Amino acid sequence: MRILGLDYGSKTVGVAVSDPLFITAQAVETINRKEENKLRKTYARIEELCREYEVERIILGLPKNMNNTCGERVEHVEEFKADLERRTGLEVLLWDERLTTISAERVLQESGVRRENRKEVIDQIAAVFILQNYLDSIPSSSK
Predict the structure, then answer these.
(1) CB within 8 A of 31, min separation 6: which ones?
(2) How far apart are CA 7 and CA 13, in angstroms?
(3) Structural domain boundaries in the chain
(4) Collapsing DSSP states into helix, strand and coil, what is residue 78?
(5) What's the alpha-carbon Rg for the chain, to the nearest Å?
(6) C-alpha closest to that of 123 among 27, 45, 52
(7) Residues 6 or more apart in contact with residue 61 via CB below 8 angstroms
(8) pLDDT per residue over 44-77, tens digit each?
């Protein structure tokens, strides 16, 4: 069993997965779509990944504002969460994702990834940060 981490954006979803012991998060892929509201293929791909990795829970990044308020993006994420729960039958937990994209950008820069190549993986790395932050919060005795 594993945990799936998602960074939901207007046209992409970064995907990460935990190891079976819930210690580390690894990047999997970025799911792209042409329009924000065209989610059928996105849901189908997430369902495939849940089966492939035998996922027991999904951690979904919650894009709160820096002052801890909820903006318009939070509404979209909450709708996405409800649809994921309905479609997968899995528990979906919202996890604060503030600064994860900035952290991902910094890691990619420091790793020497060229600017034009960062766009392809930044959402995956943000998903890794979201999932790893969640995994780090789980007490060792619960893993």
Answers:
(1) 12, 13, 15, 41, 42, 45, 46
(2) 5
(3) 2-142
(4) helix
(5) 14
(6) 27
(7) 5, 6, 7, 8, 77, 94, 95, 96, 97, 100, 126, 127, 130
(8) 999 999 999 999 999 999 987 667 676 778 788 9
Written as six digits, the tokens of 94 are: 């919202």
Q: What is the pTM of this model?
A: 0.86
Query: What stretch of H or E contains 55?
Result: strand 55-62
Looking at residue 110, the DSSP 8-state letter turns out to be H
Give the residue among 87, 96, 82 at the shortest CA–CA distance from 7: 96
CB 4 within 8 A of CB 17: yes
Provide the CATH number for the domain formed by 2-142 in this structure.
3.30.420.140
> Tens digits of per-residue pLDDT, 4-15?
999 998 889 999
CB 12 within 8 A of CB 123: yes
Whose CA is closest to 57, among 9, 10, 99, 93?
A: 93
